[in-house]
Specification:
Elements: H1 20-23, E1 24-28, E2 32-38, E3 43-47, H2 56-60, H3 64-67, E4 72-76, H4 93-108, E5 113-118, H5 120-131, E6 136-142, H6 158-168, H7 172-182, H8 191-201, H9 206-219, H10 226-229, E7 237-242, H11 251-259, E8 263-268, H12 275-278, H13 280-292
Parallel strand pairs: 3-4, 3-5, 5-6, 6-7, 7-8
Antiparallel strand pairs: 1-2, 2-4
Helix pairs in contact: 4-5, 6-7, 7-8
């Protein structure tokens, strides 16, 4: 593995705001990736979802200073999102993105990391754990894609329909409608968030890249879906879900929890798809407690 010199933010005073430029990094090779890094300690990788205008920073900028107080926290833009370059999709996107995370770990000299994934980021985290189990320590799945089979809610979900509507006809009104489905408490959404997401989602090539990513799931179907392979993920896993999630409905949490052999489940009430925003302090506390708990004290299943 390639070893990187220490970054200026390693060991930083996290009482100070960690801004975009201070934590921004790039790496090139098999993938051309942009990422943020701060903090010291065990490595923690935060993987964003796939909504319009998403990036590692937009998903986790509020959580980065807190996690950097305990972990070497790495927040990549996955291929085709944020400032990372798109790649040829010869497989379903989550497998390609999982390989890009493996590449980034190699480049940063990180042998093993905790991995937290939100929505499609949870799908990617699961594929990384399946393909490279020795590179993953503990997993946190935030309303993960691919692990749920919903039997009580419409398919596609309201959030998925709003996402498709925006992709087919991008507009500020469409972005507002989609973001509305991500949260239970509209007070956490402001014009700045909408404008940032809209600008990112409508930059040249962004819509085409996103469409290719979603189409790859249909063009390269797995012989068995992720949920059918989930029993092979033996890593200690925390599944978190918002009870009022309109993107990936809550019953998927129970299904995912039952499929993962070494999982715990935490449900946030009064919370939609963005627990890291809506229930920020509680989310950070629950995740940090899980990741730092001594291994012998963690209940095992299976």
């Amino acid at each position: 593995m390639r070893r990187q010199p220490p970054r200026s933010t390693v060991g930083c005073d996290v009482t100070q705001t960690l801004d975009f430029d201070a934590t921004s990094r790039k790496v090139e090779g098999s993938y051309r990736l942009h990422y943020h890094e701060a903090g010291a300690g065990p490595a923690l990788v935060l993987l964003h979802g796939s909504g319009p205008g998403v990036s590692g920073w937009s998903n986790f900028k509020g959580n980065l200073p807190v996690f950097a107080g305990q972990f070497r926290t790495v927040v990549p833009d996955m291929p085709g999102f944020g400032r990372s370059e798109p790649v040829e999709l010869d497989r379903a996107y989550p497998k390609v993105a999982a390989d890009s995370v493996r590449f980034l770990l190699d480049e940063l000299g990180i042998e093993r990391a905790h991995v937290l994934g939100n929505s499609m980021g949870g799908y990617v985290a699961a594929e990384l754990a399946l393909a490279h189990p020795d590179r993953v320590d503990r997993l946190v799945m935030m309303g993960p894609g691919g692990l749920a089979v919903n039997i009580f809610s419409p398919d596609p979900s309201e959030g998925a329909r709003r996402l498709t509507e925006f992709m087919m006809n991008p507009s500020r009104e469409g972005m507002v409608a989609w973001v509305d489905c991500m949260v239970a408490n509209k007070k956490v959404v402001d014009d700045e968030l909408i404008d940032e997401r809209l600008a990112n989602a409508t930059r040249p090539g962004a819509i085409d890249s996103a469409m290719a990513i979603f189409m790859s799931l249909a063009q390269h179907p797995d012989d068995s879906p992720l949920w059918a392979r989930a029993e092979r993920i033996k890593h200690p896993t925390l599944v978190t879900w918002g009870r009022d999630d309109r993107m990936l409905p809550f019953e998927g949490a129970v299904f995912a929890f039952r499929r993962l052999p070494n999982a715990e489940l935490h449900v946030f009430s009064r919370c939609g798809h963005w627990a890291q925003v809506e229930r920020k302090e509680e989310f950070e506390r629950v995740v940090a407690e899980f990741l730092t708990r001594p291994a012998q004290d963690r209940p095992a299943r299976g």
